[in-house]
Amino acid sequence: MTINYTILGLLESGDRSGYDLKKVMQELDFLPWSGNNNQIYKALVFLLEEGLVENRTAHRDDGPSKKIYSITQLGKETLHSWAKETQPQLPEYKKLFLAQLAFAESEAVELLETYEILLKKQLAYHEEKLKRQFGFPNRNERETYIWQMLYQNLLDSYQCELTWADKMKKGLVKFHEDKSDK
Predict the structure, then answer these.
(1) Distance between CA 46 and CA 9 in Å, rounded?
(2) Is 166 left (phi over 0), alpha (psi -120 to 50) or beta?
(3) What local confidence, expressed as pLDDT, does residue 37 receive?
(4) Which stretch of DSSP H or E encloses residue 121?
């Protein structure tokens, strides 16, 4: 999957500058890119060359001019063809934390407690972003529902991890108690 389709999707919801694209991409935690300038502007050059986007210069009295990008009809067709024909990817479960936990001994419970704190913070952060509908195109009810569910997917993932961490911690504590009773 490339960043190009995400840029096309963001432009489909409205014209944006490269800087605007960067801001949105950095805030949408379910996207796999950091949204750095190199990624975005390299992709925009490619999309322009392919005729998938076009740009115009917006002159401003209060600052430098900036390029505003918009999606072309070919860009829309390409975006929707990709969405229809590309097979979904399964979630990634390879995590450094799991390796740490696999080899931890007495520090395992402390690791899990730290993990739970981090998960709770992320959960609260993303609940607030959902409440504020950050990044939502809001062009229609269906699209708003889709974006709500994208955030819900993220929330559910954090909640599932939190449930698992609590279960794992309780099991380790119980194992330690059972061992000390002997």
Answers:
(1) 15
(2) alpha
(3) 73
(4) helix 108-132
